[in-house]
Amino acid sequence: MADPLSIEEIDSELEEIKTKLEGLDGEYVGRSFDEEGKTRWNEHNERRDELNSLRAELVTRNEVLVGLAGDPKAQEEGAAFHIARSTSVRGEDIYDLSTVTRAYDDPSKEGDQLRDRAKRSIEQSHFPNVRSQEDMQGHVEGLIERIDSEQGSFSRYLLATGSSAYRRAFSKYLAGAPRTKYEDEMLYRAASLTTTSGGFAVPFVLDPSVIPTSNGAINPYRSVGNVIQINVDEWRGVSSDGITAAFQAEAAATTDNSPTLAQPVVSTEMARAFVPFSIEIGQDWGSFAAEMAGMLSDSKDVLEATKFALGSGTNEPFGVITGATTVFTSSSTNVLFVADIYGVHNALGPRFRSRASWTLNNAVGDRIRQLDTAGGANLWVSNLQLRSAAVVADMQDGRMGADLLGHPAYEASAQSGTFTTGQLIGVVGDFNYYKIVDRVGMTIETIPHIFGAAQGNLPTGQRGLFAYWRVGAKVLNANAFRTLKLA
Fold first, then answer.
1. Which residues contact 314 (CB under 8 A, 6 or more apart)?
2. How do residues 194-211 score in pLDDT, each as one tens digit?
3. Label partner for 375 (CA 20 to 30 A): which of 54, 124, 273, 394?
């Protein structure tokens, strides 16, 4: 017969079981248990239920004894009773994933629990450096509705990286500071979400793969393109040029108007950034984690501005210029005429022209403005009007302050602004056909010590911050765009 347990011993074993459950859950994240996993999970939960029952019994006995302690007749001189410490109900901790009930017959039940908890986490979270907390909360909740799996894998990610304890643990991890046992447990849970041992997911309130990065003038493609988030390796869709209908004679046999379907695939490619920093900075800079996340977000935006414009598609996203292969050639090698602007606009099919936008280098935009100094060409709608609050807001999202031939125009600094033979100087098209696919979850690892070759491969007193994320992009239908090319 086993020795009886005290409340302290029960609590200690419950914490051990919690860690084991979280570790087991991490082994099978996003997957159902096999027979071995089910057996281990059930054994741990059975022991947990047994311990909780024993604990409840001890608490009840203590409560009875406390009541008797108020009755002088029931007191025994010299008696001393141990009063159990108060504890919160385990179910109240939304980040304690060991209390999520596994449902082998219906995985959606587990997913529903995770989604409910994730939404409560979002409501409690603060997003730094955003214009509207409510809008950002709505954005992340919308991601749950759009990309979460039946098992709630994205919600699990939010819960693993969303607690204040995890944010503290993450900051200490970057600084190399000591962590509590509970903080190490939180890091272990998040590590199970990454593809590389030792990497930790960025807290979701700082993660630029979850929170939209700036849509400034340098990178308009996220503002105007078709952006989605996924939690798998690639996105697969269905595209078609549509169905062609026709009038026919009475009682005549109909024709087959079935559309031609294609399945475009956008794979996510890995982008990386490495930031060396001194040990002293890591120890002394209290907001180091948040500041690094902000700078990484900016570097992500700058890199994507170039690749979304010119990317080759080999180990990087396809750029708009790369995929918009249908060109309209201008009438001159180094001079832009009004007829060229109207020509490329008219070359775009009516299906795509109604929802078209322009992306131009600022030098090209200014050259077009100079074509219309008298206003007769009517190229820039509202070009000479005072800027309203709405227009100013648009400019903060990359707009050039006016519409070109009635369509929004966005500055894209990575596109060519050089007026020489063969330059591709502007794109007009329906950017719903430019798909940007983010694989949610930026991962950061620290390199504990950097060794310098110039120092004889000895430590330099620096650490390294290695961040990586995955994103893909592709033009789904080249016919939805026209690119203006100088002859």
1. none
2. 655 567 888 888 888 887
3. 394
